[in-house]
Batch of 3 targets.
Target 1
Amino acid sequence: MVEAELEWLSKIGHLRFEPEAITSGGNWVTGPLKAAGTIWAWGQNNYGQLGDGTTMDRATPAQVPGLTNVASLAAGNEHSLTVKQDGSVWGWGFNGYGLIDDSNTDVFEPKQIAAPGAWSLTVH
């Protein structure tokens, strides 16, 4: 990536995989999935979209607690979904309109929303 792209991305936040390639990012949050199957996130956090149990914005990457063995990751505007290697689906962040579950209550930490199965994530 060129320096201008990295500067722009640092303003919107990041979800990254290792090596340093951005794999998923919404309007307000970004995060990487590292080789060890962990997710690191930073950016705006008003709906818990960083998954750290708070609503505090974060300028530097921090590991999303409680998630290991992650196989894939997708980020919406203010929420994220992931499929772990065992096939279970996890989500956190803005939950209006039932984006994560049917509670319509924002989810501040990763929450399992589907049992292991043959799930996959597609970003449109």
Target 2
Amino acid sequence: MADELNVSRQYIHKVIRLLPSNSQPKKVDNKYIVDTKSEKQIKKYMETSHSTKSTRKPRKQVDTVEGLQQDRIEDLKEQNNFYRDQIKELQKRLENSQKLIDQEQQLHLSDQKRIEKLEQPEKQNNPTSKETEEETTDNQPEEQPKKSFFKRLFSSK
């Protein structure tokens, strides 16, 4: 069929893949069984979308250095476009992650402020340990320094 239409086999496979699934020929043992219905569909597609020039490349052109370089350039352009798309997607992800981090930090800050507000009334109601120690020392009478045994014995009161 490829020879009849003057195109490559690969192009026929491409056309078959582009056809709707109900119009595609059946595949048995990695070979297509083309019936008249699918053949008509392929030819119809070829008439509407295929240009008049042949898709087959002469063998000499493919083997030349220039042809190989052109193929390589096309591959590199495709890779370049693919990588650009990936970079754009990654940049979007990064921006989204940054937004999420900012939101998380803001939530953390607001939680800290709430905790401080909740702890503030407790501090006012319950004095700290240093304050309680000062109050207890103020309430107790001052103790006199201890006198030695002999001073107590011989001292006059």
Target 3
Amino acid sequence: MTTTKTTSKKTTTNKKEGTTMAKDKMERNSKSKKSPEERFVETVNVRMPKALKLIERVGELADKSKYEYTVEQADKIKDALQSALDELVKKFENGEQKEEPVFKL
């Protein structure tokens, strides 16, 4: 069996069988295409636990027995999180996508 790979097209051709892996993959995907709602549910079920856990981890920084920070630093963190939440709410209300904000202390 002879196999050739073309890196620019990312297609592998099996000369013996005369098929391309890309074509096979497209056929499989067209048969198992998920609806936008199914993709949404799958994606949200992955992303939400991660997002909530990360917010929880940021909240752990408030422990004064482990960390020292100024009121200004705490306010900046709270403001950034509140702004991100406000933008999220707007996106769901309007169905729009906005640019990602950048946060630095």
